[in-house]
Design a protein that fits this description.
Elements lengths: L1 H5 L4 H11 L9 H13 L3 E4 L5 E5 L11 E6 L21 E4 L2 E4 L6 H15 L8 E6 L7 H5 L9 E4 L7 E6 L1 E10 L2 E3 L4 E9 L4 E2 L11 H9 L2 H5 L2 E8 L4 E2 L3 E8 L3 H18 L8 E7 L4 E3 L1 H13 L3 E5 L7 E13 L2 E10 L2 H16 L4 E8 L9 H14 L4 E5 L5 H7 L4 E4 L4 E2 L7 E3 H16 L6
Helix pairs in contact: 2-4
């Protein structure tokens, strides 16, 4: 019940989050939330504008006594990842998120919660609406389409903002201060193939890989989570030699920035091998479940008999593409040599579709080192081109290089130590924050990232910690009081 969310402390934050989550806001479909945010700013009597790509900017003057402080930009993105469980009946285009309290956590029923980056947006809204929070002059920047292309940040013109410090509210651990992030590039392999009539001696089966956790393809790529597309490919790999297995269609994964949780395949096997097929797939499924039992205890491989498909994939293409998928890197490619524990370079094989004579394989390659990003992207390109695919690189965005001499970093680092009697974790992250892109048109802006604890982002297991939100809100208020004076 969303009313229970409104009673949580701090109420100003959770009420704004509830207001925001009542508005459908999937990536690429932000029209309603853009209108919602513009209406919010205009009702407050604040200067409000929408730029040419759809970003919303709301300006609020400094409170009394804070006019001599450096002007700041508070930034979060309006869109959210739309993921749901297969058995959840939900339309992200028309419905608001159905939230509930679970102990110290806020969750959504069967869908992503939108705390990434809705809690950041709600924070800024609460400050814009406030009459008793001390702050310098603020430009609130609400960007669009962060999750599927960062086109909002890319389209923001230079000179539009006057702030000297940017507070990005998109980090997911409350003891972390973000000073850098990975860049990325979309790698997409496509090809066509001939379909053949399925021989009469074949029997149809459906295979489903499900029950995986999924998660953020950057922040969680090192955790050893299962990738449904790789698991499905492993199951199908030797099928032709053993059972005459032929692929009719595959549909696995969804968004590039989400580790794929499910994959579905329709296949045909030689009827004479039916018993052996069912037995061997069950044995292989058990092996895979044992490998993943710690991280993926709910992993299931479901095999069921279906009507024999009318069409199957050309055998040469099937053999080539399954081998290319086996060879393609998924997960961590290289750890950082400079920052202990940081993933430097990775890839997520996010989407695999084979149907009606067309193949599309969608990946997201990330790295904090530009040359390593392209090295891995070219490795994937080579794997897929060897099987006749055309490979495209699109949606490329830069990383954010850490500045350890940052003035605002020194403010946050000292404040955190003073407030919580421990050192904050100052780190770069293996995710695509908008700071690197914004820095291209605003190279002199001092940037920092922080936020409340959010777990399971980009999956239906996404949850926001209530106690952490309270800590984070307190931290935000102190940061605003301690913005440095203008020189």
């Amino acid at each position: 019940m969303n009313e229970a969310i409104r009673e949580l402390e701090p109420k100003v934050l959770w009420n704004k989050f509830a207001d925001l989550n009542a508005v459908p806001r999937p990536s690429k479909k932000e029209e309603r939330v853009i209108a919602f945010m513009k209406d919010f700013g205009n009702k407050l009597g604040l200067e409000t504008l929408e730029d040419k790509v759809g970003n919303v900017i709301i300006k609020k003057p400094a409170t009394s006594g804070m006019e001599d402080r450096m002007p700041i930009v508070m930034q979060s993105h309006l869109d959210m990842v739309h993921q749901k469980n297969n058995d959840t009946d939900f339309d992200f285009d028309t419905q608001g998120i159905d939230m509930y309290v679970d102990g110290d956590w806020v969750r959504a029923r069967g869908t992503t919660l939108g705390a990434d980056n809705g809690l950041g947006v709600a924070t800024i809204m609460a400050i814009l609406e406030s009459t008793d929070i001390e702050h310098p002059a603020i430009e609130a920047l609400f960007t669009i389409d962060e999750e599927t292309g960062m086109t909002g940040a890319m389209g923001l013109e230079g000179g539009l903002l006057k702030g000297e410090i940017l507070l990005n509210l998109d980090t997911e651990e409350d003891d972390e201060i973000g000073v850098g992030c990975a860049g990325g590039v979309d790698v997409t392999a496509k090809r066509s193939y001939k379909e053949e009539e399925t021989p009469e001696f074949k029997t149809g089966y459906a295979i489903t890989v499900k029950g995986l956790q999924g998660g953020h393809s950057g922040m969680q790529i090192h955790e050893g989570l299962g990738n449904a597309n790789k698991i499905m490919n492993r199951i199908l790999f030797d099928g032709f030699e053993n059972f005459g297995l032929r692929i009719s269609e595959i549909n696995g994964g969804s968004l590039r920035n989400a580790i794929p949780r499910e994959s579905n395949a329709i296949i045909a096997i030689d009827s004479i091998h039916e018993d052996a097929f069912v037995m061997e797939i069950a044995e292989l499924a058990q092996v895979i479940q044992t490998e993943f039992k710690t991280m993926e205890p709910d992993l299931l491989v479901d095999v069921r008999k279906v009507d024999t498909p009318e069409k199957i994939m050309d055998l040469g293409v099937q053999e080539g593409v399954t081998r290319a998928l086996y060879a393609a890197v998924n997960g961590v490619y290289r750890m950082s040599a400079d920052i202990p524990g940081l993933v430097e370079t990775s890839n997520n094989i996010a989407r695999v579709v084979m149907k009606d004579g067309q193949i599309e394989i969608a990946c997201l390659t990330r790295s904090s080192v530009e040359s390593a990003k392209w090295d891995l992207a070219n490795s994937l390109r080579a794997s897929f081109e060897l099987t006749g695919c055309e490979v495209e690189f699109e949606g490329e965005y830069p990383g954010w290089t850490p500045n350890m001499d940052s003035k605002i970093l020194k403010v946050l680092d000292k404040l955190y130590t003073d407030m919580y009697d421990e050192k904050a974790h100052v780190a770069a992250c293996h995710a695509g924050l908008e700071c690197g892109i914004l820095g291209q048109n605003y190279p002199n802006m001092d940037m920092i990232s922080f936020g409340p604890t959010i777990k399971g982002a980009h999956s239906p297991d996404e949850r926001a910690q209530i106690s952490s939100a309270q800590k984070y809100w307190e931290f935000v208020l102190e940061i605003l009081k301690n913005i440095p004076k203008q020189q």
